[in-house]
Design brief:
The chain is an alpha+beta fold. It folds into five domains: 159 residues; 110 residues, no CATH class; 164 residues, Alpha-Beta Horseshoe (Leucine-rich repeat, LRR (right-handed beta-alpha superhelix)), CATH 3.80.10.10; 75 residues, Immunoglobulin-like, CATH 2.60.40; 156 residues, Jelly Rolls (Sandwich), CATH 2.60.120. Helix content is 29%, strand content 18%. It contains 18 helices and 24 strands. A seven-stranded mixed sheet has the order 1-2-3-4-5-6-7, with no helix packed on it. Strands 9-15-14-11-12 form a five-stranded mixed sheet, with no helix packed on it. The radius of gyration is 34 Å and the shape is flat. About 1% of the residues have low confidence. Keywords: Membrane, Transmembrane, Transmembrane helix. This is Chitobiase/beta-hexosaminidase C-terminal domain-containing protein. It holds the Pfam family PSCyt1.
Length: 710
């Protein structure tokens, strides 16, 4: 046997080995544990996959198109190409299967890609071993292999780049557009940025760091590194920190080499986090001077071509000052937009200066400017104006008669001005009008039942007050220095909207009409408790509770000892972790948490001799990461002078019916007040993860970082 035949025989034997290993992976499924060395092979999958693709395509061409080379030469090349391609296909499939077992890969796209990869390997084996056997048609197998190879490549590309990567340039212009006045803050401003720049790596089929950004509930849940938002200090939110990291930093988002956020997109995401990451609410309900309007405007501007003569650049520049901005609608456009700022500095005489560019101005924003005593006749001759924002300017019906002379006015904002039905005839004379904002004007939809505006399909924006729809307030912000404190902790509550009232409780129950105290001054917390605060305002739906758990440290002489050991990599500093006064965050891999899975947490506590009435446990729940609420908790005690254990408290927990956002939980148990020789705490983990979970049947974890007695 010559060297060539030895190599061929060796590779053929390896193909059988690969098939056996693949069968083990298929049978073992997620129960297999991949060692670190093989994880490196798994991560080489994107590098390896190109070799079998090229070789398979060459081999398929040789099978389907005879006569490219002399017959014997073509058969020999076909054999070699198929054998080497099958070898690399086997390694590629095995490495891909290993990669799929890492965190962050799941979903239908992954499953389809995995099985198509297996099909490519099997079809390659069939084509190689059956190509010269009578009764089998190599061309049929080769054709099926080509189709399977293309399908596997397509689904693999979906995993890497997102499901719409290939057709995105063609589909970009086909996406549904909404007018700026109807745009929702999250759905139409924030989410498109996440979809375009973030979702490819953080979606159902590929969730790096256990983080998904394709749906709001997953965004709120956070990922392996914790929650994305910090309501107490938005600048320290994980999302903001990752976006602000230098480009060369490993954790910078988006990663180096990916399409980066523009300055406007980055500013929008930061502003969203600063405002409490709201999910509901329209841009139209934002304060007129809010930066939301300026930042979001570019996302909704449809590029319109204007063919009129541009104004002189020096003239345009001369009209700009600290309180007025005149600039092209977009670079190179002759159309101008005008924005006024600073109510106190507004000078009515400055309006006449705009007459010099009256034939170029298409948009004027005077929201919040004091126009109650200012005539609008200065608008005469502004024949190109398409949008006029007079929100909260104090204009009257009589003043607005002047705008009827604007021949091209399409969008008119009048919110916050006291008006009467006498405005309707003026609006009806505007033939180009297609949108008008009238919320908080004293008018309602009934005033327009017989109006031609309705038949002309003019959109009338009533906001949340006029239309009966209410929006939910953002949760209050809780300011403090430490959640783990010695004697007392000062806590301050605030809300971005100054007129909002805040109600709070310290017993773990959400405030409502019967429970809670109205916040009037900083709160002094002197005991272990769970603070919940809710924001209220007329015309708004109450906010969701903002919850912060505070822990008063145990006396320094308290001693603790674990009778059981934590599991796996979550052993922290052992018993010391439970009493070191260092509160863990939502990153369960930070080393601040003890994890128990194979046996319960069994902790003996030797008090200092003082009277005790409370035992508190700080826990983390994160079902997506197999960290569940405990199955059961028991607390026993030995009274001073007695060696008999007596039951003091116990609780049994319901198993969750679905994954919930990653969260920190305080469990408090009242003890019969007295002095104790010892206390014994047992926290039992769930032994059978429910069927709805991807780890169904496995043991769940319980995570604890602090145990305190007061």
């Amino acid at each position: 046997m010559n060297n060539m035949n030895k190599w061929i025989s060796g590779l053929e034997n390896l193909l059988i080995v690969f098939a056996g290993l693949l069968l083990i992976f298929i049978i073992g499924g997620q129960g297999l544990v991949v060692p670190a060395v093989l994880q490196v092979l798994g991560r080489s999958h994107p590098l390896l996959l190109h070799f079998p693709i090229v070789l398979l395509l060459l081999a398929i061409i040789f099978v389907l198109i005879p006569g490219i080379l002399p017959e014997n030469n073509q058969k020999q090349f076909t054999r070699i190409f198929l054998l080497i391609a099958a070898f690399f296909a086997g390694i590629t499939v095995l490495s891909g299967w290993m990669l799929s077992m890492e965190e962050g890969y799941e979903g239908n796209d992954l499953e389809i890609h995995k099985w198509l990869g297996v099909a490519v390997f099997v079809a390659t084996l069939l084509l190689y071993f059956l190509r010269n056997i009578s009764g089998y048609s190599p061309k049929i197998i080769a054709s099926a292999l080509a189709i399977t190879l293309l399908a596997a490549g397509h689904w693999g590309a979906n995993l890497t780049h997102g499901s719409d990567f290939l057709m995105e340039p063609l589909n970009a212009g086909q996406q549904d557009q909404v007018p700026l006045e109807e745009a929702l803050v999250f759905d139409h401003v924030v989410k498109p940025i996440l979809d375009k720049k973030c979702v490819n790596c953080h979606q159902a089929s590929k969730s790096k760091g256990d983080l998904r950004l394709d749906e709001i509930n997953f965004i709120q849940a956070g990922g392996k590194s914790g929650a994305l938002f910090d309501s107490a200090a938005w600048q320290q939110s994980l999302l903001v920190e990752r976006l602000d990291l230098p480009m060369d930093e490993k954790k910078h988002m988006p990663p180096k080499g990916k399409v980066q956020l523009t300055q406007d997109e980055l500013a929008i995401l930061k502003l969203w986090v600063e405002d409490g990451a709201p999910v509901e609410g329209k841009l139209a309900t934002m304060e007129a001077e809010s930066p939301w309007h300026t930042l979001a405007a570019s996302l909704f501007t449809e590029t319109t071509t204007y063919d009129f003569e541009p104004a002189d650049e020096e003239l345009i520049e001369s009209l700009n000052n600290y309180y007025r901005r005149v600039r092209p609608l977009y670079p190179g456009s002759p159309a101008l937009e005008v924005n006024y700022y600073g109510t106190a500095a507004f000078a009515p005489a400055s309006l006449a200066e705009l007459n010099k560019v009256r034939h170029q101005v298409v948009s004027v924003n005077m929201a919040r400017m004091p126009l109650a005593e200012v005539g609008l006749d200065w608008l005469d001759g502004f024949d190109k104006i398409e949008e006029l924002n007079l929100n909260f300017t104090g204009v009257s019906v009589e003043q607005l008669a002047a705008i009827a002379k604007l021949p091209n006015l399409q969008r008119l904002m009048l919110a916050g001005n006291t008006l009467s039905a006498e405005i309707i005839p003026t609006l009806e004379t505007m033939g180009q009008l297609d949108f008008v904002s009238l919320w908080q004007t004293g008018l309602d939809a009934g005033d327009f039942e017989e109006s031609k505006l309705k038949s002309n399909q003019v959109v009338i924006e009533w906001g949340f007050l006029g239309g009966g729809e209410t929006y939910q307030l953002n949760a209050p912000q809780v300011k403090y220095d430490h959640v783990l404190f010695d004697k007392t902790e000062k806590v301050t509550l605030k809300h971005p909207i100054g007129t909002v009232k805040i109600k709070y409780t310290l017993d773990g129950n959400a405030p409502d009409s019967l429970n809670g105290n109205w916040y009037t001054e900083p709160i002094t917390v002197d005991q272990t408790c769970e603070l919940q605060a809710v924001a209220y305002a007329d015309g708004w739906e109450a906010s969701l509770p903002q919850t912060v758990s505070f822990y008063r440290k145990s006396d320094e002489t308290v001693r603790m000892n674990l009778n059981t050991s934590p599991s796996g990599n979550y052993q922290g500093k052992g018993t010391e972790t439970l009493m070191d006064g260092e509160k863990g965050d939502v990153n369960y891999a930070s080393g601040a948490w003890l994890g128990f899975k194979d046996q319960p947490l069994d902790l003996e506590i030797t008090p200092s001799g003082e009277e005790l009435s409370l035992l508190a446990i700080s826990m983390m729940y994160h079902e997506e990461a197999h960290i569940f609420p405990p199955k059961r908790i028991t607390i026993q005690g030995q009274k001073a002078g007695s060696s008999q254990w007596t039951d003091l408290a116990q609780e049994t927990f319901d198993v969750p019916s679905s994954s919930q956002p990653n969260r920190l939980v305080q469990l408090r148990y009242e003890l019969p007040k007295g002095r104790y020789e010892k206390l014994r705490l047992k926290v039992f983990p769930v032994t059978n993860v429910p069927a709805w979970h991807r780890g169904a049947g496995d043991k769940a974890w319980v995570f604890v970082d602090e145990v305190l007695v007061n």
